[in-house]
Design brief:
Radius of gyration: 22 Å
Protein name: Carbohydrate porin
Organism: Commensalibacter oyaizuii
Family: Belongs to the OprB family.
InterPro entries: Carb-sel_porin_OprB, OprB_Porin, OprB_sf
Keywords: Signal
Strand content: 35-45%
Oligomer: single chain
Length: 483
Amino acid sequence: MINKLNYKSYFWTCISAGFVLTFHCVGAVAKPVLHQKRTKTHKHILPAPQVNQEAASTLNNPRGDPDSDPSQELLLGKVNKYLDQYGIQIGASWLTETAGIVRGGKRKGVDYAHQIAFSVDMDWEKIVGWKGFSTHAMILNLAGRNASTDYVGDAQIQAQEIYGGGYDRVIHMNYLYGEQKLWDGKIDIKAGRESVGNDFAVSPFACQFMLIATCGQPRSIQSQQGFSPWPGTVWGARILYNTSADTFVQVGAYESSPWGTGKGGVSGFTWGVKAATGVFIPVEFGYNSNFGKKHLNGYFRVGAGFDTSRFDTWSSQATGSGKKDNRTQFWIMMGQMLYRNDPVQDHGLYVIANWGHDSPTTSTFKDLYNLGFLDRGFWGKRPYDQFGVMFTYYTVPRGLGRAQEYQINHGQVQPDIYGGFSSLLNGAPGIQSNAMLFEANYGISVYRGIMIMPVFEYFHNVGATRKIYNDAAVLGFRTNIVF
C-alpha cells in the first residue's frame, strides 16, 4: 500500500485546460515518433553532432536510395513538407510484434500485439510568432496479448516490448505537452502530460530490440512507479541546459502515481491528481560523442531519480509489519560507434551497455545489466538493413526472495497447475533470485517507411526463478510502418 496525498492543483488545472483547447484545435491526427521517444520514426537516430560544413558533408550519403530508407515516411513526406511552412507536422505509424514460444516456459503458444500511433507537432513560432514555443500530442490504439504472461511465465520481462501499461485500448492519450526553447536552444523547458521516459535514460537504440529488457529504458528503471514510461503519462515538467555543443544536464519533477488509478487511467485522459502519492525527481548528465575523422558518434548518460512516495517494503507486504521506505534509482548508459560502415550518420557497428540499480527494499529489481551490439550499413547492397544482439542479466532484491519464501512457508500462497505458485509477491511463479536473457534480430528494410524484423529470444531462469519452468526459446516477428 502507498500513502496518498489528498490535494488538488489549480496551477495544473489551468495548464490542462490550455492544452485541451490546443489539442481540439489541431485535431486527433499525429506524426508518430516511436512510442516512447521524440525521434521521428521507430529507427532512433542520434542528434546531429555540432560539426563544420566539411564534416557535415562527410555524413551525407549521396548514393543512398531514399526509397529503401525505413526512416522515411511512406505516404506523408510531401504532405509534411508542405505543412512545415505553416508549423505543422502530422503522421501515423503501425507497429506490430508477434511472439511464439517454441520450447520451455509454461507452454507453447503465440501472441500478437500492436500499436497504432497518431500525433501532431506544432511550431507556434511559425504559426503566431511565439519564438521557441511548440506543442506535441500523441494518441494510441493498443490491442493484443502478452506472450510472456500467457506462455513464457515471466511477469516482468515482456517478450513483446510493445505490450505494457494496460492494454486493449481503442483510444489512449499518450502525451500532451508544451515545449519552450530559450537562448537559441541552450535552455529547453517542457511541461504538461508527459512520461519521464520520454526524456530521461533515453537510448537512441533501445527499441531496436523486441524484449522489454532495454526498450525504452533498462527494464529495472522503468518498472517502478515514479519513473513513468510509455504509455503512462503524468503531470510533470523538465528543464534541460546544454552546457556545450556535446554535453547537457537536465532535471525534472513528475507526479508519482500507480498504474490503474493514476498515469491517466484507462484512456489517458484522467488528469486529476487524487491518485498521486508523491513526486519523482530525476536528474541526468549527458554527453554526445563524435570521435575522429570518421565521426564515430555515440552517447553517454549518467542519472538518478528519487521518489518521495512511501512504499511498503517487501518484508512488510509478507508479514504485515507496516514498514515503509522511499525509492531511489541510478543508471549509467552508453552506446558508441566502433567502426563506420558508410557515410550515413548512424551507419556503423555500435556497442551498447547499460546498468540500472534500484532501492532493494521496495523495488522489483536490484541490478540490471545490458550488453549488446547493433550493426547498420554493413551490407553495401542493402545499406539500410541492420543486425542486433543483446545480453541481459538482472537480480532481484534478497529481501523480495525472503518475503516470497515467508509466504510459501506460512501458507499464504497455493500451488498452480504449472508447478509454480499463485499470488506470490511480484507476480512471480516461485522464489526469485536472478535471470539471463538473450535476443538476436535482423532488421530488413523493405521500402521507404517499412521495416520487418525476425527475432530470436531466450529466457534463462524464467522469471528469475529456478526449477519452476524450463528455459524458454521464443521466435518473434516485428513490423513497423511509418506512414
